[in-house]
Amino acid sequence: MRSYKGLWLALLAVLIVTFSILGWTGVEVYRQAPPMPVKVLTQDGKLFTSQEQIERGQSAWQSTGGMQLGSIWGHGAYQAPDWSADWLHREALAWLDLAARQAYALPYGQLTSSQQANLRQELQDEYRGNRVDAATGELRISDRRAQAIERTAQYYIDLFGDAPELKNTRASFAMKDNTLPDLQRREDMTRFFFWLSWAAATERPGTNVTYTNNWPHEPLIDNHPSTANVVWSVVSVVLLLAGIAFLVWGWSFLHKEDPLPQAPAQDPVLSVRLTPSQRALKKYAFLTVALFVLQVFLGGFTAHYTVEGQTFYGIDVSQWFPYALTRTWHIQAALFWIASGFLAAGLFLVPIINGGEDPKFQRLGVDILFGALVVLFLGSFAGNYLAIKHILPAELNFWFGHQGYEYVDLGRFWQIIKFVGLAFWLVLMLRGMMPALRRNKGDNHLLMLLAASTVAIGLFYGSGLFYGEHTSITIMEYWRWWVVHLWVEGFFEVFATTALAFIFTTLGLVTRRSATVASLAAASMFLLGGVPGTLHHLYFSGTTTPIMAIGATFSALEVVPLIILGHEAWSNWKLQERAGWMSDLRWPVMFFVAVSFWNMLGAGVFGFMINPPISLYYIQGLNTTPVHAHAALFGVYGFLSLGFVLLVVRYLAPHVRFNDRLMSWGFWTLNIGLALMMFVSLLPVGIIQAWASISEGMWYARSEEFMQQPILQSLRWWRTLGDVVFIAGALLVFQQVFVRIWAGRRGQSALAAGSATGSAR
Fold first, then answer.
1. How far apart are CA 427 and CA 274, in angstroms?
2. Which residues pair with 40 in a beta bridge?
3. Residue 402, SS3?
4. 273 vs 269: CA distance, rounded Å
5. Residue 754: what pLDDT?
6. Residues 605 and 636: beta-carbon distance below 8 Å
7. Which residues, 6 or more positions from 193, have their beta carbon under 8 angstroms from its beta carbon?
8. From its phi and psi, is residue 510 left (phi > 0), alpha (psi between -120 and 50) or beta?
9. Residues of the chain with pLDDT under 70
10. Can you list the alpha helix ranges (DSSP code H) found in 33-69?
11. pTM for the model
12. What's the mean pLDDT when you consider all of the chain?
C-alpha cells in the first residue's frame, strides 16, 4: 500500500475537490436559472401567454425531435437554424419595422442611418431591460413587442406546418412537411421559442449581461462577448500552456519506467479454459459490430439530407424517415454499440479475475443482460419513430417516445431500463471482483481501481434521471452533461485505461506495479479537469459568470494529459514485439493505438478549439462542433469499443486468425474516412460559418440564405467521399468479426462432436 498511498490520496483529493466544485455550481444553476414567467401580460394587462403554455410548447418541441432538428441555445443539430437565435433576430426585425412605420410611416429599411440608429437604441432598451416582477413572477411586454412576437410566431406556425410558400425552406432545413401537425401545439411551441429568445436578450438583474451571457451574437440588441468571456478565455489559454509545461517537467523528473517483465512463452489467457459466460459473449460481439454498421449507414443517410433536404437521390423519404428521426437513431445506435463493446470487455474479464471460474449463474445473467439490450434497442427506436411520426399520444411522448435532448433522446421509460441494465451489469461485474479482492492478499490496487470505475459507470448514468419533462432547460443541461461529458469522458475514460492496464498485466507484458501507478496517475489527471470541465458546455445555457470561469479553467486542464498520449500509443504499439504470440493481438492493439491518436487530435486539439468562452461564443452550434464530436466519440470511444470486441473475439475463436490484408484495409479506411469527413467537409463548412457568425451574427451563420450558398452545398456533397470510405471500413471490420465468430462456433461444434464420439467409443 505504501508505494501507492500518495497516488490514492491524490485521487481521493481530486474527487473531493472537483465534486465539491461541481456540487456548488449545481446549487448555483438551480438558484440562478432564467425565470419562466408565470404570466406574460401586455401593457393593458391582457394575458399574452403563461408558464403553462410555454411548458406545453416545450413538450411540443420535444415531440418534433427537439435538439435533433435545429438547436436551442446552441445545442443540437446543425442543418436547421438555432431556433433561439433565429427567433430573436426575426422578432427584433419585426419590432424595428413596426416602430419605423409607427414613427416615420416607412419600412425600417427605407429609413436614414440616424433614424435606424435611434430605433435600434429603443430596441435595445426594451429588449435588454428585465421587466419580470420578482414578487408575482409576471412579465410585462409592450404592445409593439406583442405584435412583433405574433408576426414571428406566424412564420414558425407555417414553417412547422405545411404552408406551400415555405416548402423550399423546409427542404433547406431538412424538415418534413407537417413537422408538427397540430395547430394548437405549433402555437404553444412558438411561446417556448419566445421564452428562449427572451432569456437570451434580457439582462440578469444586477448585471449588464443577459441570462445566456450575451449569447447569441446579435448586433441588433448589442449582444456581444462580455468582459468575463474575454478574460476567462485568456486564462484558459495560459493555464493550458502552464499545464503542458508542468506536465513535461514532471514527466521528465518523476517518471520512471519499470523494467518490462519476461514475456510468457505462450498467451496466458489461452491457458485457461473459456467459461460458459465468456462463450456467451459472441452475441455481444456480433451485436456491437452489427449496430456499428447500422449506425454508419444511418450517418451517411442523415448526412445526405443536408444536401437534398427531403429526398434521397430524388426519392422523397422525409415523410417516413425524416432527418430528425434518422439523426436520433444515428446517435442512439452509436451509444448502444459502444456501450455493448465496453460491457462485453468487462464481462470477459470477470472469470479471469475470479480465478478462471464463473460466479454462480453468471451465464444466465449475461444472457438476461443481452436480452435487455435487445429490448432496449428495439423499444427505444420504435418509441422515437412513433413520437416523431406523432402516432404516440402527446402525453406519452416524454416517457416512451422522444425526450428531445441530444444523446439522451430515448423516452424516460427506456432510459430507466438502460439504467437498470447498467446496474445489473455492475452486479455481474462485482460478483467476480469482490471475491477476488477478499481472496488475494497481494497487490490488488489495480483491481480496486477497476472495481471503482465499474461502480461509477454502473451508477452515474442515473444522473440523467434528475430532470423531468418541464424542467428548466438550464437545469436539464446541467444533468444532461453529467451523462454526456462526466459519465462518458470521465468514468469511461478511467475504466478503459484501467481495463487495458489489467489486460496487459494479465498477459504478462507489463508489471502490475507500473500498470497500477500509470492507471492511478491517469485517473487523477483525467478527473481533475474532466469533472469541473463539464461546465464548459454550460457557458451560454442560462448560467452565471462563475460557471463560465470554472468551466473555462478546468476544461483547459482536460487537454493537458492528452499531450502524453503519443507516448501511450507508442508503448501499446511496441507491445506487439514482446512475444511471438502477440501477432494475433495486432489488430486490437492497432485500434488502441488509434484511440490515443484521436484522443489527442479529436478530444485535445479540436476540443480545445471550441472550449475557450470567446471561441465557443461565436461557434457554438456550428459545424466546428461535429468535428470534435466525430473525432472524439468515434475516434476515441468507437475505436476503443471495437478494439475490445476484437480482443474478446480473438479468445472466443483462438484457432481462427483475422485476415491481415482485409483488417488492414478496414482499419485504415476507417481512419482515412473519418479524416476525410472532417477535413474535406465539416471543418471547412464550420470555418466559413464562423466567419459569418463573427461578422454578422449567429442567426446568419445558420440561415437558409447562408447555408444554401453553392460553396457550402459543394462542401456538404464532398462529405460523401469520406462517408463512403468510412462505410467500407465498417463493412470490412464487420465481415472479419462475423467470420471469426462463425468459424469459432463451427470449431466448437466440431470439438463437441468429437468429444461425444470419443465418449461413445
1. 21
2. 49, 139
3. strand
4. 8
5. 42
6. no
7. 57, 61, 83, 84, 87, 156
8. beta
9. 1-2, 252, 255, 257-258, 563-569, 578, 744-761
10. 51-63
11. 0.94
12. 91
